[in-house]
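Q: Convert this sequence to structure tokens.
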Amino acid sequence: MPTYVLTRRAALLSFGAFAAAGVGGCNTTPTAGVQPAASGPGIGAIEVDTTPLVAYVGNPTAGWAQQALPGALAQVLGSGAPGGPTLHVRIDTLYLGGGNPADPDRMRGVATLAGHTISVRAVSTNYVPSPTDQALPEQALQGRVQALAVAFAYRLKSKLGA
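A:
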């Protein structure tokens, strides 16, 4: 007869500890969702116009876009270059979809930099409905608008070739 008997509970604890140690090595330092631009197009200032958006979706959604876009654009594209051109961004439409890949959140606008006009369409499929959204609908919608602002900034960056 075996002198060492391993109980089911001890075996599960052993396997759990082994798995936790293995996965623990995968943890990385948390970073912000938007990384600062290392070298951008040398933008001096950023101006965001959401006047057409107020007519399209109203407030507070247009206000959230007005708050989120300048920061997202500054972090993704970089700003504050002395003597750099001003980036003018106008947001025309914003649509918050049903929360699945077939109906994503979308933002459309126009950016003007140094006389060049660029049409930008951004799509964000990061939204996954949760029970918390029913309890805190305004915070959930504001988070979706912020995610769209980041997606818009990265889409503009790719169109600028920066």
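The two ends are 71 Å apart (CA to CA).
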